[in-house]
Design brief:
Structural class of chain A: alpha/beta
Radius of gyration of chain A: 21 Å
Shape of chain A: globular
Oligomer: homodimer
Largest sheet of chain A: 8 strands, parallel
CATH superfamily of the largest domain in chain A: Metal-dependent hydrolases
Distance between the termini of chain A: 61 Å
Strand content of chain A: 15-25%
CATH architecture of the largest domain in chain A: Alpha-Beta Barrel
Chain lengths: 439, 439
């Protein structure tokens, strides 16, 4: 049998149930799926294949899964930092979005995000933004896998000047993208309980249930949000959403920094999932989500970076390091969030959170071949005792050498094969020049 | 006039008093010193020089200064993580040190550390360890700048089996290295108030005062340490050291996580300096140092990574990001530790902390030419609105392209010119193989 792709000569970190590590592994791909995964004896050659990746002794792992992004916000990377949340939003981000979010700009910003994600080993993301059709076209062009959602708010939004159309637009988006690409799964994203009315939330949830797609929402991110919901609805954001019938296993709650014991009980009972974004929460001083407790409660958590205006990157390696360290500090316990737990959160955890764990998140026979190779022949990764430790505490995004999605090689030797990165950077720099000039 | 080195065609982040940024800068070096630093008009060419670096539109900044390292601990990078502090130290690190810290291993570990630091833009470090003569030889071979100290404890130590010699050995080290190299400044490092008796501390301080060198010590790192000093001496670690006459402006206090208001007052009054190591403190769950408060008090702080067994890297870019984010979380204030403050801490702040601010830490005429070039022609650094934001929140160690120490180019296009990196990695991998086998 001739395989489409064979990867060999590396240490394979499967992230399966037992977290098996295969020292001299062999992974064979046919029609986008992993057909074989096993050790290769020293005297054996890899089988014939149309394409072969020699990992050169590096680490081979499942592609990372970013469970929360706003891709086109790469346009605003570092535009404004270190400001009070309301100044940052109202005086910088909202005006920039209002002035510069035209469809074409959104497309270039999303393409840049795809380039950054692929080069840093992320093979799947879960996004929500405006002009999401443009985002989807960009992701489609990049060859990445994604869950993509049109955003919903009750105010005039980029591309949706009339809030009365804020359900019609995501409905059209879901319909446009439901069968358009095997790698793109549409979804619906309500911004939050404070930017959407109860009616909007219920309609959006009904739309996502009818279409059988995920419903995403920012929830319990800041203390201010909790105070506002308490004031308006006399309860917590989680209990409020639950009262509206929003929470079930197709719901992704983003952030969940401020939770009561009852909130955690509700999330567990409804089997809702959480996207944990520690760097964004830290940079905006939102707080620290009670992640060790959530994991102990058996709640599914994925890792996410959030948008580039509040991080300021889409780098899950950096995010893993932060996830490992910030909870140790918070709990005063160095055993909290060990390296294996964090690697799981950035792969199979995120895959579960976004509903794609049947396809991705681990290296296992039968799953899609979303695979990355990390080159650890580098002073900062020498020596290596434990692969998971290196992935979390020592590797950086630039150590990713090759990236495969659904069996297709998208990055080889740190070169993106499917996008014109020079042109994308040049276009985004032109847009940024206009943004700078306007300030 | 023919310069030895000219750097041009970049955005120069001077980190001077006004944090001046020179958009199209020119920096000229003669005999290791910065002789000119100014803007270069579009129609002007850079002056003739023996060597020229075209920064290609990148960022040019002072070399980063790591105010706390244990260089040879690269040998134990990722050997043991996510463990309670005493298990980690007593069952993993101390036994590995006892078995594997021979002079030759220390030398290779230190060489690896130098390679890692240079490739990540660090031009100066401040170190303390055992067999420090081997460390100094390695640093000397690398061309880096450093403050280096022989460690002092009251127990048998690698290279100092007889604790009675724990002052004689650092005395010999200081004497060996005082005039040996223009780039190496010797120092004395007492491990801590709980590993050294009052007598040892006073003798070591007397040695450092006699020799006119820095005195370094870990202080107030963990709550356990504070409890022990309280139990043994009925006071805090800082007040205890002050009572022994240890604290003055030549003293570098490492960590300072657990401080009382009186401790902060003492440190300020004595003009002692602090090395802040947020990633190590987070990973070991030691806690979060009250850095915003210390800065407000006018205390000099530098940034440091600590050793590779507790971080697990020597990457100051990563450390800057953590320093910016963790204090925002801790203070619930996103304006805390803005990007400029953090860049200052990793350059001139560290230079002040280790007593080399007259020579390094900023790009200014008259200072030594310790300079790095960052390539930001890369998706994760596109677009760029504010250089300081990019340095702290978006750049990674791998974005460093060129590195200059005292006017000598040590890294060009990410290639180390002065060390045989392949041989160093291969030697360290051999040592690590023995360490693995022994476990």
């Amino acid at each position: 049998m001739n395989y489409d792709l064979v990867i060999h000569n590396g240490t394979f970190v499967t992230v399966n149930e037992r977290f098996d590590i295969i020292p001299d592994g062999l992974l064979c791909v046919k029609a986008g799926n992993i057909e074989r995964l096993e050790g290769l004896a020293a005297d054996q050659s890899p089988p014939p294949a149309t394409e072969t990746i020699d990992a050169n002794g590096g680490l081979v792992l499942p592609g990372l899964v970013n469970s929360h992004t706003h891709l086109p916000m790469t346009l605003f990377r570092g535009l404004a930092d270190d400001l009070p949340l309301d100044t940052w939003l109202n005086e910088h981000i909202f005006p920039a979005e209002a002035a510069f979010l035209q469809p074409e700009n959104v497309h270039w910003g999303a393409l840049l995000a795809c380039a950054e994600m692929l080069l840093s080993g992320t093979t799947t993301c879960c996004d929500g933004y405006f002009f999401e059709d443009q985002v989807a076209a960009a992701v489609d062009a990049s060859g990445m896998r994604a869950v993509l959602a049109q955003g919903v708010i009750d105010f005039p939004a980029p591309g949706v000047p009339d809030p009365k159309k804020n359900i019609a637009v995501p409905r059209a988006f879901v319909s446009n993208w439901r069968h358009a690409s095997a790698l793109i799964t549409p979804s619906v994203f309500c911004h939050s309980a404070y930017m959407c009315s109860a009616e909007t939330l219920k309609k959006a949830k009904a739309l996502s249930m009818d279409a059988g797609v995920r419903f995403q929402i920012h929830a319990a991110e800041t203390q201010n949000e909790c105070r506002q919901i308490q004031h308006d609805h006399n309860t917590t954001p989680i209990a409020y959403l639950d009262g509206l019938g929003i929470l079930d296993e197709a719901t992704l709650l983003v952030h969940c920094v401020w939770l009561t014991a009852e909130d955690i009980e509700i999330i567990f009972k409804r089997r809702a999932r959480i996207s944990h974004n520690p760097e964004s929460n830290a940079k905006l001083a939102a707080g620290i989500a009670p992640v060790p407790q959530l994991l102990k409660s058996g709640i599914v958590l994925g890792l996410g970076t959030d948008g580039c205006a509040s991080n300021n990157n889409l780098d899950l390696f950096h995010e893993m390091d932060m996830a490992a360290k910030i909870h140790k500090t918070e709990t005063h316990d160095p055993t909290t969030m060990d390296a294996r737990t964090v690697v799981e959160m950035a792969t199979i955890g995120s895959a579960r959170a976004i509903g794609l764990d049947h396809q991705i998140g681990t290296l296992e026979v039968g799953k899609q071949a979303d695979v990355i190779v990390i080159d650890h022949h580098n002073p900062h990764l020498t020596p290596m005792y434990h692969p998971a430790s290196h992935i979390v505490y020592s590797a950086t995004c630039s150590d990713v050498r090759d990236v495969v999605v659904a069996g297709r090689v998208l990055v080889r030797n740190r070169q993106i094969l499917c996008l014109d990165v020079e042109r994308i950077m040049s276009k985004v720099n032109e847009i940024a020049y206009q943004i700078k000039k306007s300030r």
